[in-house]
């Protein structure tokens, strides 16, 4: 069960490292252990080393050294997203107060690369396009974005009438598309749960758990973690979460035991730092 593509444009490759941190219940992992377990999920050791290099260069991971061995820790938005997915943090800096924070931009075509980077970064922290030149978010997340002044980006708070909000959120966050993607993820999980998950060996159980959690994580991160006040009453996120938790309950024993054996057999096991916040 090595599926790489979750719903929509979510890239499961970038979820390998945080998944390994989670299943190992670790805050720090030596490179050989991290790369080995990532390669059990998908990809070759060389491709996963390259992936870790890109994630470190992008600020998603921190790298220190113990002799010649690299020690990795999650950082930045990756750590924030990890905490939110785990349930002990939020992707947003504060609760929604009924207003929308807006970013207003007019970046010329001659700076297209900078504009594209800005839009991608803004999307990652929860802003969505209401119309060209205007991004909105239920909360102020602009502090997570760098270089706004250099790009001439302005910020403001906007309010909409109560009867407009539903339509605005539906369009900007493309809720109809996301509902369909949630339904596809739910159908996939229901198929998984109908199989003999308890009969999977350790590495297969870990791969299945990675797939199931990736279905939810991809949607949670891509829908901008909308506050419940802004989603329809029948929004399928809770149903998806319940199915993921059921899959985890059935897969956890074999998957965790496999990871523990892999770590214990490594000559770098003493460099693993346990995450004591896990139950």
TrEMBL record:
Domain spans labelled Transcriptional repressor PaaX-like central Cas2-like: 94-162
GO biological process terms, semicolon-separated: DNA-templated transcription
Transcriptional repressor PaaX-like C-terminal domain location: 173-260
InterPro entries: PaaX-like_central, PaaX_C
Gene3D superfamilies: 1.20.58.1460, 3.30.70.2650
Pfam family, one: PaaX_C
Domain of life: Bacteria
Record protein name field: Putative PaaX family transcriptional regulator
